[in-house]
Amino acid sequence: MSGNITFTIIKPDAVSKNYTEAIFEKIEKAGFEVLKRKDVCLTKELAENFYEIHKGQPFFAGLVEFMTSGPIVVAALKKGNAVEDFRATIGKTNPLEAAEGTIRKVYGEMVSRNAIHGSDSDENAQREIRFFFTPEEVEF
Ligand code: RTP
Ligand code: MG
């Protein structure tokens, strides 16, 4: 059982294809309240920092290039068991392996263009919210 807050990013592929509002509708239909959202453009330095855990992975450079290729939308979400339930709502990392009806299955193309991010732990949800929002923006 996870806590009641998680964090998401609508990635550049989904934003550029105008899927953002449809994805947020799906998120809300799945029972999540959008506490705060905003549009962001990542610099290379910010993207490298956000994904620092993956530094050294063969996909790291491509991931940073992709995440800086266009605007993203970041949001803090609320629901009971938020982290686990949201990971289930978005589906597996590789959209080709994601279950029917999940966000990555519907809106993702491939593992490197998979439409959406979801935090993988309560601790990372808090880190990621602090990474993108000022304390004033997230006085929930
Ligand atoms: P995310 O962090 O974006 O929610 O995705 P995730 O937890 O499901 O996957 P993670 O292991 O954290 O990987 C972060 C992102 O890196 C890209 N990736 N590419 N084998 C590959 O080419 C590969 N593996 C991971 C994906 O875009 C993934 O979302
Ligand atoms: Mg991850």
From TrEMBL:
Enzyme class: transferase
Alphabetic keyword roster: ATP-binding, Kinase, Magnesium, Metal-binding, Nucleotide metabolism, Nucleotide-binding, Phosphoprotein, Transferase
Required co-factors: Mg(2+)
Active site: 117 (pros-phosphohistidine intermediate)
Residues in Nucleoside diphosphate kinase-like domain copies: 3-140
Gene Ontology molecular-function annotations: ATP binding; metal ion binding; nucleoside diphosphate kinase activity
BP GO annotations: CTP biosynthetic process; GTP biosynthetic process; UTP biosynthetic process
SUPFAM superfamilies: Nucleoside diphosphate kinase, NDK
Entry's EC annotation: 2.7.4.6
Cited SMART domains: NDK (SM00562)
Positions of ATP binding: 11, 59, 87, 93, 104, 114
InterPro entries: NDK-like_dom (IPR034907), NDK-like_dom_sf (IPR036850), Nucleoside_diP_kinase (IPR001564)
Pfam families: NDK (PF00334)
Ranges annotated as spanning the membrane: none
Family to which the UniProt record says this protein belongs: Belongs to the NDK family.
Protein name listed in UniProt: nucleoside-diphosphate kinase
